[in-house]
């Protein structure tokens, strides 16, 4: 009998998963429609369709800390759903829906004006307002159907376990409250729907108001779903619903954003995109408790990834250092506190390893899923070291670097002792958990790493991007040991190791055929995995590419087979598995392109970096100045608009960080020896760019640049 070998698509053959098969992940937005809207505040969000409804059985609902508190929330008038006139989010946490009635018995169309105002903060708040435009009194039955399934977010993405027999109800007889409770061992959760104007009747889980409206009479009801006690939202907005919607309530977000660098420019699209990025990063902030540690970091993305991710958080912090060091310092300290300290097969934890993902739902808390936290990432540890270095370069904060000395040494030991699984000098990955990830680089879908002919390689894999990060981390760590960490012998050793890795990598990963390019990986048999991918942009960013090969790499990245017109595709069109709508098989990821742009600028390919930047800023205009997680890889020459990936998170942290990284690449802004160095190359289409309150070395700086000239000045504190 042939031995089944582990691959990213089947990483633990013969092992039985701890949970039932998840099945195909369901897509968004088809169930809610393309006009679906979300309101968001930290780990809390509500997804609904254009009417403001959450139909039963859909992926919508109110979710807090990975648990769905509402799975149905539908409003009807006289037994019929309403008609949408317009719906818009106001701020990331608030939305307004304007509706009317269809043609109903005794109620002609457009007889009622219906508004739904909602926001999330310390719970979910909604105000429903009805206004009659009839010249005579009308009788209206307003019905709100409520459903609760307490599903774990992992189930919402796939198959929801039926908990109905275990959900208890304690609805108020006077119509003022619906109450649902669920308990499974130590996991307890409750949903309460509180009514400011009690319902006239309660039928099952439905609230019903029997109204008689006089001509032009207005009626309203306020509904409130409190959040479970504990940490979660960072400084939520509070106040009357109308005051929140119209901006009259105190908004902590505004205070948070006022402390960030301010960018202005001649190009309004650029300025608005950067402003939207700032607001989205604020919206994604989480205040969580993990292993007794309180951490405040941005969640990775709405709706599926409102949780702390090591890789996503670290890259986002790197992208946004130009706007201030607060996020980077928080990421370094929080992830250091949660650094691995033992070997655990179920969670892929190892000493010194930086976590991949943290979850809070029932499946994690009862041990079915390994996410409390999960360590299945082979690149987060190197990225933590890279961020530590970049934070120090921007701040000169020797004290924080020294405080994290032991964590840095532990991360280095992980790279050399656990990351390099077979002692060949490369960091490889392969999960030991039945619930573990098959691919543990950023291309983490089961087919995200493939051969040019479509075959899936055997594990363990040493991907090229991870080797580039490892090289960069050792070079940077040597700089820290020459400086605040004061160990010159170790610094010399690290530079020697980096030099050896550079030489071996460029021997083993380089492919001369097809114009010359870098392989995406070496597989478990040390075969070259020969697909052309966007990982080559990460290699430029890390500096592991020799100057004499840079031209070939850039030609590959900017060729029509890889550059779609909106950005660099994750996989070349030449390859067998190319799919313009494949998650890592030909889509265009903004964060991936921001890393490539920084790499291109590093090697002096400013025109190519600008081409990427302009394309992404133009794409952002088409999505309300917000870049989605990923775009499809359709060629721009065949499309008059950019097309998002069907289940793209939006907002998403490293997509939100992308505009700041692109601006940094255009400005050529880098901290050098206690000062900010500026080397601008700004496309004519963008004109002048100015930035105030840029923080570096404990001071604030002002930057102004146009085309290839500019200046940096210290600003008064």
Secondary-structure class: alpha+beta
Low-confidence stretches: 18-30
Q: From the alpha-carbon coordinates, what is the Rg to the nearest angstrom?
A: 27 Å
Strand order of the largest sheet: 7-8-9-10-17-14-13-12
Multimeric status of the protein: single chain
**Please, how many helices?**
17
Overall residue-averaged pLDDT value: 92
- Name the overall outline: globular
- Please count the beta strands (DSSP E, at least 2 residues each): 30
Largest sheet: 8 strands, antiparallel
Helical proportion, percent range: 25-40%
Distance between the termini: 73 Å
Strand content: 15-25%
Task: Please give a structural write-up.
The chain has 717 residues and is an alpha+beta fold. It is built from 17 helices and 30 strands. The strands form 8 sheets. The protein has an 8-stranded antiparallel β-sheet with strand order 7-8-9-10-17-14-13-12. The longest helix is centred in the C-terminal third of the chain and has 21 residues. It is globular and about 85 Å long.
In terms of topology, how is this protein built?
Layout: E1 37-41, E2 44-48, E3 61-64, E4 67-70, E5 72-77, E6 80-81, E7 83-89, E8 94-100, E9 112-121, E10 123-132, E11 138-147, H1 153-156, E12 168-169, E13 177-184, E14 187-195, E15 201-203, E16 206-213, E17 218-225, H2 241-245, H3 252-257, E18 262-265, H4 268-283, E19 285-290, E20 293-298, H5 310-319, H6 326-337, H7 362-365, H8 380-395, H9 398-403, H10 405-419, E21 462-463, H11 464-482, H12 488-508, E22 510-511, E23 517-518, E24 521-522, E25 528-529, H13 535-542, H14 547-557, H15 590-602, H16 606-621, H17 653-667, E26 670-672, E27 675-677, E28 688-696, E29 699-706, E30 709-715
Antiparallel strand pairs: 1-2, 2-3, 3-4, 5-6, 5-11, 7-8, 8-9, 9-10, 10-17, 11-16, 12-13, 13-14, 14-17, 15-16, 18-28, 19-20, 21-24, 22-23, 24-25, 26-27, 28-29, 29-30
């Amino acid at each position: 009998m042939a031995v089944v070998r582990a691959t990213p698509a089947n990483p633990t053959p013969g092992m039985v998963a701890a949970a039932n098969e998840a099945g195909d992940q369901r897509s968004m937005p088809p169930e809610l429609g393309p006009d679906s809207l979300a309101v968001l505040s930290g780990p809390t969000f509500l997804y609904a369709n254009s009417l403001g409804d959450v139909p039963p059985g859909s992926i919508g609902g109110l979710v807090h800390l990975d648990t769905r508190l509402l799975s149905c929330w539908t409003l009807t008038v006289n037994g019929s759903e309403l008609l949408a006139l317009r719906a818009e989010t106001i701020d990331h946490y608030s939305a307004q829906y304007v509706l009317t009635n269809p043609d109903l018995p005794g109620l002609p169309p457009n007889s009622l004006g219906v508004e739904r105002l909602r926001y999330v903060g310390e719970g979910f708040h909604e105000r429903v307002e009805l206004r009659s435009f009839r010249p005579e009194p009308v009788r209206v039955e307003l019905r709100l159907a409520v459903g609760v399934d307490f599903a774990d977010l992992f189930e919402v993405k796939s198959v929801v376990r039926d908990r109905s027999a275990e959900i208890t109800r304690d609805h108020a007889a006077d119509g003022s409250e619906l109450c649902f409770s669920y308990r499974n061992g130590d996991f307890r959760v409750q949903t309460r729907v509180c009514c400011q104007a009690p319902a006239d009747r309660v039928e099952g889980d439905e609230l019903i108001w029997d109204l008689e409206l006089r001509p032009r009479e207005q009626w309203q009801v306020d509904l409130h779903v409190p959040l479970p006690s504990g940490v979660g939202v960072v400084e939520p907005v509070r106040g009357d619903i109308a005051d929140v919607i119209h901006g009259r309530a105190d908004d902590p977000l505004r205070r948070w954003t006022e402390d960030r660098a301010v960018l202005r420019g001649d190009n309004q699209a650029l300025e608005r995109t950067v402003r939207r990025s700032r607001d989205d990063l604020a919206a994604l902030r989480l205040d969580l408790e993990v292993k007794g540690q309180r951490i405040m970091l941005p969640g990775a993305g709405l709706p599926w990834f409102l949780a702390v991710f090591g890789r996503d958080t670290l890259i986002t912090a790197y992208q946004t250092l130009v706007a201030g060091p607060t996020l980077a310092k928080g990421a370094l300290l929080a992830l250091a506190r949660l650094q691995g300290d033992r070997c655990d097969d179920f969670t892929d934890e190892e000493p010194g390893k930086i976590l991949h993902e943290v979850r809070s739902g029932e499946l994690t808390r009862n041990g079915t899923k390994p996410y409390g936290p999960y360590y299945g990432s082979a690149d987060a540890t190197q990225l933590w070291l890279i961020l530590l270095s970049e934070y120090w370069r921007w701040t000169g904060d020797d004290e924080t670097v020294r405080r994290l000395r032991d964590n840095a040494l532990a991360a280095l030991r992980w790279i050399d002792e656990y990351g390099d699984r077979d002692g060949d000098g490369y960091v490889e990955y392969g999960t030991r958990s039945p619930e573990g990830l098959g691919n543990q680089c950023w291309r983490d879908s089961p087919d995200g790493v493939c051969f040019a002919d479509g075959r899936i390689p055997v594990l363990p894999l040493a991907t090229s991007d991870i080797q580039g990060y490892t090289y960069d981390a050792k070079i940077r760590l040597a700089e820290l040991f020459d400086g605040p960490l004061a160990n010159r012998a170790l610094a010399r050793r690290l530079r020697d190791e980096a030099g050896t890795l550079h030489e071996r990598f460029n021997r083993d990963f380089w492919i001369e055929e097809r114009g010359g390019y870098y392989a995406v990986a070496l597989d478990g048999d040390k075969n070259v995995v020969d697909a052309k991918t966007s990982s080559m942009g990460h290699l430029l960013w890390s500096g592991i590419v020799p100057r004499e090969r840079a031209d070939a790499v850039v030609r590959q990245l900017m060729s029509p087979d890889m550059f779609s017109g909106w950005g660099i595709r994750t996989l070349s069109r030449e390859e067998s598995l190319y799919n313009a709508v494949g998650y890592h098989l030909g889509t265009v990821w903004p964060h991936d392109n921001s890393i490539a742009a920084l790499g291109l600028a590093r090697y002096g390919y400013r025109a190519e970096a600008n081409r990427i930047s302009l394309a992404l800023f133009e794409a952002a205009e088409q999505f309300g100045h917000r870049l989605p997680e990923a775009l499809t890889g359709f060629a721009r020459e065949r499309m008059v608009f950019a097309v998002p990936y069907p289940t793209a998170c939006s907002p998403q942290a490293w997509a939100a960080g992308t505009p700041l990284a692109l601006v940094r690449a255009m400005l050529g802004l880098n901290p050098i020896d206690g000062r900010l160095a500026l080397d601008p190359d700004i496309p004519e289409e963008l004109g002048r760019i100015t930035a105030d309150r840029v923080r570096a070395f404990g001071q604030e700086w002002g930057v102004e640049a146009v085309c290839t000239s500019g200046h940096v000045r210290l600003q008064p504190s």
